Structure formats: structure tokens, C-alpha cells
UniProtKB/TrEMBL annotation:
Gene3D superfamilies: 3.30.420.40, Winged helix-like DNA-binding domain superfamily/Winged helix DNA-binding domain. InterPro entries: ATPase_NBD (IPR043129), ROK (IPR000600), WH-like_DNA-bd_sf (IPR036388), WH_DNA-bd_sf (IPR036390). This is ROK family protein. It comes from the Bacteria. Belongs to the ROK (NagC/XylR) family.
């Protein structure tokens, strides 16, 4: 988008047609999050009121901008019209394929969720059946909104495995080698982006979660399994083979077996508890439970510290089921990470704001962002701004 491109834009010759396209993008960006009046649009977009009025009129005709009810008058004179980005011109689909549940959401072009549906699955279900159920769920959501498949302008798919060029290279055995994008291609004409679930959770937390103010962050999913995603300079780091952040695959890190410290923990009263019971007992002060949580946190801290010392992030966001224990888990985790970060202060370690919605939010957000990137690339690449009724693959 325009962020970070100002210098390159200024170095390029700007004719009248290019200037109009740039101004159109500036206006769209100005009203993405809230409706504004023409004078306010002009101020935010850096245009004259006359130019802003002309651009808004063009965008209204194309369907990218709609007018909204004026604010109630607070003084003399007629209240000014306001305009907003028409995020409802189309929808995007986010799909989160988990080991037990497939979640599907439709969102507008700003990533705001419009409808959602969940489907129970099993690790023994063949991939074709799981993907067919996901397509069926999308169709059901579209039918409920009176929309068709052609109204879906992009799809983002979250997968619990390593993804390289839309192919699962590591994950559940029966899924390895599957091209997920190709599997959806027979049902949807729109672009389909497939990504690792921790990467999408990292994207979501940086987009509208706990790391929204940071340009660099590490996301760690800590639940029944542990995984990580990295954002640097406002971009998700995928690596040469899609495996960036997969340090948990190293047995030496201990992440694959860390959960054993939370299983069958004997408390001071003789009871044996697991995970939630351990955290509850630790919160209540049981010394054996506190020791078990500390051992678990110490193992998880090794991988977090390795990532911190590698990419030097501003913040670490921890998601997954174990974060429900709050500071009972996070405090010892912070202490161990601080001890291991010998060459720099440990960054803030905070819980996920999106909780169990991180990966599905990332899937829908990736799809919505990809549409806007296509719009910007098309306009900046010399093409006339397309109508909002025209799907991106025809731009």
C-alpha cells in the first residue's frame, strides 16, 4: 500500500492520469476506518477541497465510496455529507483448518467479520473431505447473505503445518504434499492464499491485536502444541521454504515434549491433575504445581529467547490455551526469558488480544489485505481504477 512507497512515488514521473489514481488511493486510505467529510478527507489525504470533492465523486461512481448520513447538526447550517470506503462491495473468506475444527468466516474488505460457521472434523478424516466441508460451509454462509461464489474476492487458509508455495511440506502425515490452493481452485475463481497458522496468528496480532503498535514482533502459540511466527518491518517472515519460526521442530528446544511437565502432576494433597488443574493449583499456591509450571515455562522460554536474540523484536505475544492461566504462566515465562536474554533486555511478553481467534482472524485479514494490495498495484501500475463490481482477477 502507500505506506513506505512515498519516496519511490515521488521519484517517478507523475502525469495527470497517474496523479488521479494516486489521489484516489489516498482518499480510499483516508476513509478506510471512519467516514469523513470532504474537508476532513482533503486534510487527511493532503488534497485541496476541490480535488478531494472530484476524487470522491469519481469513487462514488465506481462504487468504491458511499455516502453516509450526516452527523446531527450542532449549530447553524446544514450538516456536511460524510463518505466512507465501501468495504461491503465484496467479501473475502477466511478458513482455519484445525485438528478438530474447521472454522469459516466471511469478512468485508476491511476484514470485519460478517458471518461465521464451524465444522467438527477428525484427524482421521481424509483431506479431501475436510476441504469439501470447508467449501460447503462457505457456500452456506454465502447463501445466507444472498451472495454467490463470484462475490468472494479472495480466500485465506490457515493450516497447522509448514506451507511452501501453497503445498503442505510438514504437518499431519496425510496432508503432506497436498496443494491446498489447487484443491480450492475447482470451486472458487478468486485468489487463494495458504499459510501456516502461527504465521497468520502473528499477522493478526500485528494487524489488530496485541502488537498493533509494533513493527517487529514474535508470536508464540502455546497450547497442546507450540509454534511461532515472526513479523519484521511490518511483514510476516516466511523464509526461503516457508519454515521461518519453526524452531520447535528442533528436539533440543524441548517444545515438542514440554507438555509432559503439565501432565499427571501430583499435588501436595496427593491428587494428580493435568494442565488446567495444574494451573489452577499453581494459582492457589500449591508448591508442587508452581514447580511444574516453572519447569514448563523454562522449556518454552528457551525457544522464545532464541527467537528474541535472533530477530530482536519489540514485543513477544503469547497465544494458545495455556495463556488462559494468565500471570501464573506468564510471570515465570518472563523471568526465564529475561535470564536467557543476556545481550539485550527481554522484550515485553504479553498475552494475545485475539486469543483463540488469532489464526482465523489472520486468514480473513490476509485475504482482505491481498484484495487491497491488488487494487493498489493495479492503480499504481498504470491501469484505470476498476469498478467495485469487477472482481480482482479481471483488473
Amino acid at each position: 500500500m502507500l505506506i513506505g512507497r512515498e519516496a519511490s512515488l515521488l521519484r517517478q514521473p507523475v502525469g495527470q492520469s497517474r496523479l488521479r489514481r494516486i489521489n484516489s488511493l489516498a482518499v480510499i486510505e483516508a476513509i478506510r476506518t471512519e467516514p469523513l467529510t470532504i474537508p476532513a478527507i482533503a486534510q487527511v489525504a493532503g488534497l485541496s477541497k476541490t480535488a478531494a470533492d472530484t476524487v470522491v465523486g469519481d469513487l462514488v461512481a465506481l462504487g468504491w465510496v458511499t455516502s453516509v448520513e450526516p452527523l446531527s447538526p450542532t449549530g447553524a447550517g446544514r450538516p456536511a455529507n460524510r463518505y466512507r470506503f465501501n468495504a461491503g462491495a465484496a467479501v473475502v473468506a477466511g478458513i482455519d483448518i484445525g485438528q478438530h475444527t474447521t472454522r469459516v468466516e466471511l469478512a468485508d474488505l476491511n476484514g470485519e467479520v460478517q458471518a461465521a460457521r464451524s465444522v467438527t472434523v477428525s484427524v482421521t478424516d481424509p483431506p479431501a473431505a475436510v476441504l469439501a466441508d470447508a467449501v460447503k460451509a462457505v457456500d452456506q454462509l454465502l447463501d445466507a447473505q444472498g451472495r454467490e461464489r463470484a462475490d468472494v474476492w479472495a480466500m485465506g487458509v490457515s493450516i497447522p503445518g509448514v506451507v511452501y508455495q501453497d503445498v503442505i511440506t510438514r504437518g499431519l502425515d496425510v496432508w503432506e504434499g497436498l496443494n491446498v490452493r489447487a484443491a480450492f481452485a475447482s470451486s472458487f475463481e478468486c485468489p487463494v492464499a495458504v499459510e501456516n497458522d502461527s504465521n497468520l496468528a502473528a499477522f493478526a496480532e500485528a494487524w489488530k491485536g496485541s502488537a498493533a503498535e509494533a513493527a517487529s514482533m514474535v508470536y508464540v502459540h502455546c497450547g497442546n502444541r507450540t509454534g511461532a511466527g515472526v513479523v519484521l518491518n511490518n511483514a510476516v517472515v516466511r523464509g526461503a521454504n516457508g519454515a521461518a519460526g519453526e524452531i520447535g521442530a528442533l528436539p533440543q528446544m524441548g517444545w515438542e515434549h514440554a507438555q509432559q511437565y503439565l501432565h499427571d502432576v501430583e499435588l501436595t494433597d496427593g491428587r494428580k491433575v493435568s494442565r488446567e488443574g495444574v494451573f489452577d493449583a499453581a494459582t492457589a499456591g500449591d508448591p508442587l504445581a508452581v514447580a511444574a509450571v516453572d519447569r514448563f515455562a523454562e522449556v518454552i522460554a528457551i525457544g522464545i529467547a532464541a527467537l528474541v536474540l535472533t530477530v530482536d523484536p519489540e514485543i513477544v505475544v503469547v497465544g494458545g490455551g495455556n495463556v488462559q492461566a494468565g500471570d501464573t504462566f506468564l510471570d515465570p515465562l518472563r523471568r526465564h526469558v529475561e535470564r536467557l536474554c543476556t545481550v539485550r533486555p527481554a522484550p515485553p511478553i504479553v498475552p494475545s488480544a485475539l486469543k483463540d481467534r488469532a489464526s482465523i482472524t489472520g486468514a480473513g485479514g490476509l485475504a482482505a489485505t491481498s484484495v487491497m494490495e491488488q487494487l493498489y498495484a493495479s492503480a499504481l501500475g498504470g491501469k484505470t481504477l476498476s469498478s467495485a463490481s469487477t472482481p480482482p482477477w479481471t483488473w
